[in-house]
């Protein structure tokens, strides 16, 4: 019996299961959770999420980490982009004197 491993899932599966999953992962049915981009392959969606996470990490001031984490801890937003817009608006309102 030959066992295969799909990248990113690291589960051992049989040949027939491998073929089914590989076909599914190549279909443009995936969505990036961070940006909401649709009609991506699994690899494209993973790459899009990785880039969004890197961009957010590199452009976010350390001083705001704790307050933002406190605000989003129990948030019901599903996308990072939505959380970012809400937090940016809130901090801009408190940071810029009128």
What can you tell me about this protein's structure?
- By secondary structure, the protein is mainly alpha-helical.
- It is built from 4 helices and 2 strands, in the order ββαααα.
- The protein is elongated.
- It has a domain at 62-98.
- A hairpin with a 6-residue loop joins strand 1 and strand 2.
The poorly predicted ranges are: none
- Gyration radius, in Å: 19 Å
Largest sheet: 2 strands, antiparallel
Oligomer: single chain
Secondary-structure class: mainly alpha
Instruction: Give the DSSP E fraction (strand runs of 2 or more residues).
Output: under 5%
Q: Judging from the principal axes of the Cα atoms, what is the shape?
A: elongated
User: What is the CA–CA distance across the termini?
Assistant: 70 Å
What is this structure, in a nutshell?
With 98 residues, this protein is mainly alpha-helical.
What is the secondary structure topology, with strand pairs?
Blueprint: E1 4-5, E2 12-13, H1 15-26, H2 42-59, H3 65-72, H4 80-95
Antiparallel strand pairs: 1-2
């Amino acid at each position: 019996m030959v066992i295969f491993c799909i990248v990113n899932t690291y589960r051992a599966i049989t040949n027939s299961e491998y073929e089914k999953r590989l076909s599914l992962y190549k279909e443009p049915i995936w969505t990036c959770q961070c940006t909401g981009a649709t009609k991506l392959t699994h690899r494209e969606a993973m790459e899009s999420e990785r880039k969004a996470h890197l961009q957010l990490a590199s452009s976010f001031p350390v001083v705001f980490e704790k307050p933002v984490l406190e605000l989003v801890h129990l948030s019901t937003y599903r996308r990072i982009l939505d959380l970012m817009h809400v937090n940016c608006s809130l901090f801009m309102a408190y940071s810029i004197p009128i």
